[in-house]
Design a protein that fits this description.
The chain is an alpha+beta fold. The chain contains eight helices and four strands. The longest helix is centred in the N-terminal third of the chain and has 19 residues. It is elongated.
Length: 173
């Protein structure tokens, strides 16, 4: 029994952007594999072809992800069901819980992975992150979870404590 394609894709994909990017790249690779002379090859050869294809496209992240996914992406896959399986994998995104995360600067791939792993351990194992840049959340972040907005930025914390800061300044005058 093989893991469903969508389970393989979300196993190490944490953001909405990465989900759709990786699914699109996978579609390109699988089309080249199943509609070429490679279709009869072993799954390990297909995987090596796709990894090399990702490198030629200058997409080292996708090449690395393919290595993590392994040959499982080809299990139960054929030219006859390719598009149906990809469509099913894409449709699963709409069923996943989504955390909207606002950060002040772009995050590295490694940091996105760390945040994604933490969120799945602490909040929900199939959670996906919709990541956005918002310079106003300096010194922290803001997020929306279960229709509730949380502002965890330094600016907000200072605003909440403005009366206290004024009292401290007046005490030293």
């Amino acid at each position: 029994m093989y893991k469903d394609l969508q389970e393989i894709v979300i196993s190490n994909t944490y953001t909405k952007r990465d989900f759709y990017h990786r699914l699109g790249r996978l579609s390109e690779c699988l089309e080249k594999v199943f509609f070429s002379e490679l279709s009869g090859n072993e799954d390990s050869e297909k995987l090596l072809f796709c990894i090399e294809y990702a490198r030629k496209l200058n997409d080292p992240d996708f090449a690395s992800v393919l290595q993590e996914w392994g040959v499982g992406v080809f299990k139960g896959m054929s030219a006859n069901n390719l598009y149906k399986r990809l469509e099913e994998a894409g449709a699963v995104y709409e069923t996943l819980p989504e955390l909207y995360l606002y950060v002040p600067v772009p995050l590295s791939d490694q940091l996105i992975r760390e945040v994604g792993v933490w969120c799945r351990q602490e909040i929900g194992e199939r959670l996906m992150i919709d990541l956005s840049i918002d310079e106003r959340v300096v010194g922290g972040c803001a997020l929306v979870w279960n229709d509730t907005y949380y502002d965890l930025s330094l600016r907000t914390r200072f605003g909440e404590q403005s009366g206290l800061v004024s009292k401290l300044i007046k005490a030293y005058e």
